[in-house]
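Any chance you could type out some protein's one-letter sequence along with its backbone structure tokens so I can compare the two?
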Amino acid sequence: MTLRFRTVFWTAAALTVLVTLIWSFWPEPVRVDIARAAIAPMTVEIRDEGRTRIRDVYAIAAPVSGRLLRIDLEPGDRIETGDVLARILPSEPSILDTRSQGEAEAAIHLAEAALSAARADAQTATSALDLAREDHTRIARLRATGTASQAQLDRAAAELRSAQAAAIRAQAAIRMREAEIEAARIHLHGAGSGPQTGEIFDIRSPIDGVVLQVSRESEGPVAAGASLLEIGDPAGLEIVAEFLSADAVQTGPGDTASITGWRRDAPPLPARVRRVEPYGFEQYSPLGVEEQRVNIVLDFTGPPDDLGKLGHGYRVETAITVWQRDDALQIPVAALFRHDREWAVYRIITNRARLTPVVIGRDNGIQAEILSGLSAGDRVILYPGEGVADGVVVRERSVTE
């Protein structure tokens, strides 16, 4: 009896130690994050920063030199067609120095001499025309009686036409010389037309819109061509975004887009691509990387009231839809990794990780389309680490872990 008790005791003790050792060295399941492959709508977008601009901006410049009167308009003021934007008091004609004045007077004398020569040439041409006309009339009568030949009549007609052309050229030369005299006198004494000294010249608005920017507000001298202000119609607001050329080739006119980032907690504004400009340009990123970018122009497609207080030159975020599908089989991109130059995932089968090659289609940076290798409902491991391998026992990580 004592021997049997000892045998049972030591056998139980040995089994306990063996179970303890096996339990101690038994591998723990690897805690992992899990996601399921699902069929759902999927959209691929290209995103970049953009800015708003009024399609037709009118830059108003001074048409004449003079003294600009103070501009009372301010950015944001409404204007209508014909409203006075700025007023200029034209300046006195420029006073030439002694040398320039002498040259201008000499130019007048030269033009007057050329006019006299042109008038003499015109008299010569008139006399030649009269003679040619008389010769043609005489030969025509002789031809009617049979005394002159047809060749003589044709030659007289040609000489008459030549004399008429010479007379016309002579008259044109007179008008040209007269214009040269007038130009020389204007250079010497100043123009006699246009706004006169002491008469205020008003610059009026060509459109209905708003004042965008006032370049020159204070009164003072202004030169012809100097920028004064810019105006435009806010109803023609559009967006221009600088996309990487690799992204720009994926889109085209008519693609839908959304505009965000223009106001905190504001819903996206619908838009549509109107034009992808054919000319690219170089730009450096904040990190100093050289990039090739392309301007893409978009139009707002929603009601104008939704634009709120958006104006010219405001920063926005643009997202253009380049691909979408309503029934795409997809998984998070965090489950994908490269294996033997192919894409693969770890699929969970009976609580074990199984290496599974997959073929992917489109991805939007968050979700990836699966073309083959998985089915809807399959569980995959997210962010597989070094502890995950083919055949390893895994367990889903709880929220508190």
Observations:
- The two ends are 53 Å apart (CA to CA).
- Residues 191-197 have pLDDT under 50 and may be disordered.
- The longest helix spans residues 98-145.
- Helices lie at 2-25, 98-145, 150-189, 245-248.
